[in-house]
């Protein structure tokens, strides 16, 4: 977001990437903390002054850490978690349990017990079987939303579509399973039915699918005479990875979504429920940049050039997994010729690719630094120890501060669970 060349050297929020790499090593994730905060504030500002009750819940899966959770609490966000691990992270950061929502299509009994014991605010029930499971495990009343599947197809990668009829997520509103789950919830004396949730998919660039979902869901709620106190519209607001991507227009898009909500509430003569949304990517993605150091540069004359960096699919899985495209910038701006290059990682897989056919200076060589923009969401959080790579460090920068928020994994940590 605030990546800029100053005196031919790439800076993030005024900090030299070269300086950060020298201090913290590479690969390194650098987040513009001001950008993280301002995205949270943008989402708040589209609801403030709209005379409706709302909350914004950040999807931890996009990127979580203790300092990230603390920042989110300071920015008045609620938090979604999908595992005992994400819940533990949130609680370790001191996040109020009552503001945590537990998602997931297959919460284990152990996870449910842990969340109940910690007193989390809301369970988002994702299966008929889960109604009985939570009912059996709970020893106190718990508020629940039901994750419904509105059967809306969105135009995004098939791995990140979630609201279509054929999905492991949610209960269909078209074949009666959602209604029977709601009946079951009403029959339980421990589960309080608070409303419904849906998530259409991820990296959605326009409000069309969200408007369509509202039509479908309001009609269903009205026909089935279901009263909801909370309507959770999920996340999925798209960001810009390369110039080809269209960002979800947060201000205009939500002005239409909120307008639609008000119209439908009036049309069906129901009070507007508490509205929740769950952005993840749109808060974190563009705030983050990864810095790598170049190692081997391999020219295959007349064929191609491979520029290898010191990380790869262990910290950047989105290209191998989704064919996602990124911009790769050299940290020092050169004025020489650029040539077509493949930027690849150092892991033992041919698919370990950061970007294909990118334009990079012809004299790029060992020791040079490159930066990959828009890597703040689903990068660190999807990082692995494949090839026993160590997870990188993460730093947050503001205009006048730099702080390490996650240290680089050590070699010792790689064997800490091994029986010796
Ligand atoms: N709420 C629910 C229930 C979700 O399943 C998700 C994402 C979100 C909110 C947040 O969606 P976002 O605003 O971040 O798009 N690893 C994939 C993305 C998987 C998203 C899964 N669910 C990727 O790197 O593109």
Task: Characterize this entry briefly.
By secondary structure, this protein is an alpha/beta fold. The longest helix is centred in the middle third of the chain and has 18 residues, at 250-267. The protein folds into two domains: 3-31 and 286-414, Beta Barrel (Lyase, Ornithine Decarboxylase, Chain A, domain 1), CATH 2.40.37.10; 33-282, Alanine racemase (TIM Barrel).
Count of beta strands:
21
The CATH architecture term of the largest domain is: Alpha-Beta Barrel
Strand content: 25-35%
Largest sheet: 9 strands, mixed
Helix content: 25-40%
Question: What's the overall average pLDDT, rounded?
Answer: 96
The CATH homology group name of the largest domain: Alanine racemase
- Enumerate how many helices there are, as a single number: 12
Polypeptide structure, described:
By secondary structure, this protein is an alpha/beta fold. It folds into two domains: 3-31 and 286-414, Lyase, Ornithine Decarboxylase, Chain A, domain 1 (Beta Barrel); 33-282, TIM Barrel (Alpha-Beta Barrel), CATH 3.20.20. It contains twelve helices and 21 strands. The chain has helices at 17-24, 33-47, 66-74, 84-92, 109-118, 128-137, 177-187, 208-223, 250-267, 281-284, 318-322, 411-414, and strands at 3-6, 9-12, 15-16, 28-32, 54-59, 78-81, 100-102, 122-125, 142-149, 171-172, 191-197, 230-232, 274-277, 288-300, 304-309, 328-330, 338-344, 353-361, 369-373, 393-398, 401-406. The strands form three sheets. Strands 4, 14, 15, 16, 17, 18, 19, 20 and 21 form a nine-stranded mixed beta sheet that branches. It has an eight-stranded parallel beta barrel with strand order 5-6-7-8-9-11-12-13, surrounded by five helices. It has a three-stranded antiparallel beta sheet with strand order 1-2-3. Strand 7 (100-102), helix 5 and strand 8 (122-125) form a beta-alpha-beta unit. It is globular. Ligand LLP binds at residues 59, 62, 80, 103, 160, 199, 202, 234-237, 278-282, 318, 322, 378.
């Amino acid at each position: 977001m605030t990546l800029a060349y100053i005196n031919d050297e790439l800076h993030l929020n005024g900090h030299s990437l070269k300086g950060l790499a020298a201090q913290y090593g590479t690969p390194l994730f650098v987040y513009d903390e001001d950008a993280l905060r301002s995205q949270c504030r943008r989402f708040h500002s589209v609801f403030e002054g709209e005379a409706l009750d709302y909350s914004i819940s950040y999807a931890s899966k996009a990127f979580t850490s203790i300092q990230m959770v603390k920042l989110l609490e300071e920015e008045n966000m609620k938090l979604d978690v999908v595992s005992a691990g994400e819940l533990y992270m949130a609680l370790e950061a001191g996040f109020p349990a009552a503001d945590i929502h537990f998602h997931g299509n297959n919460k284990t009994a152990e996870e449910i017990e842990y969340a109940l014991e910690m007193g989390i605010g809301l369970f988002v029930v994702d299966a008929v079987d889960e109604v009985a499971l939570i009912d059996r495990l709970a020893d106190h009343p718990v508020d629940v939303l039901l994750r419904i599947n509105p059967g809306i197809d969105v135009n995004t990668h098939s791995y990140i579509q979630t609201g279509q009829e054929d999905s492991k997520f949610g209960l269909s509103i078209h074949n009666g399973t959602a209604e029977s789950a709601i009946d079951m919830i009403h029959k339980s004396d421990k589960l309080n039915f608070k409303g419904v949730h849906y998530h259409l998919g991820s990296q959605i660039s326009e409000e069309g699918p969200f408007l369509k979902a509202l039509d479908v869901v309001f009609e269903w709620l009205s026909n089935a005479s279901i009263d909801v106190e909370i309507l959770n519209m999920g996340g999925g607001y798209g960001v810009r990875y390369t110039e080809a991507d269209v960002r979800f227009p947060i201000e205009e898009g939500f002005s239409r979504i909120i307008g639609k909500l008000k119209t439908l509430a009036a049309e069906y003569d129901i009070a507007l429920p508490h509205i929740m949304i769950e952005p993840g990517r749109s808060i974190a993605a563009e705030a983050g940049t990864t810095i790598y150091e170049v190692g081997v540069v391999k020219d295959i004359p007349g064929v191609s050039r491979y520029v290898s960096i010191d990380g790869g699919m262990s910290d950047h899985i989105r290209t191998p997994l989704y064919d996602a495209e990124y911009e790769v910038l050299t940290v020092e701006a050169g004025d020489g010729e650029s040539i077509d290059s493949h930027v690849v990682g150092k892991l033992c897989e041919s698919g370990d690719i950061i970007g294909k056919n990118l334009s990079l200076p012809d004299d790029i060589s060992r020791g040079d630094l490159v930066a990959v923009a828009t890597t703040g969401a689903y990068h660190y959080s999807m990082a692995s120890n494949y090839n026993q790579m160590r997870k990188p460090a993460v730093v947050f920068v503001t205009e006048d501060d730099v702080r390490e928020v996650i240290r680089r994994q050590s070699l010792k940590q790689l064997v800490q669970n091994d029986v010796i």
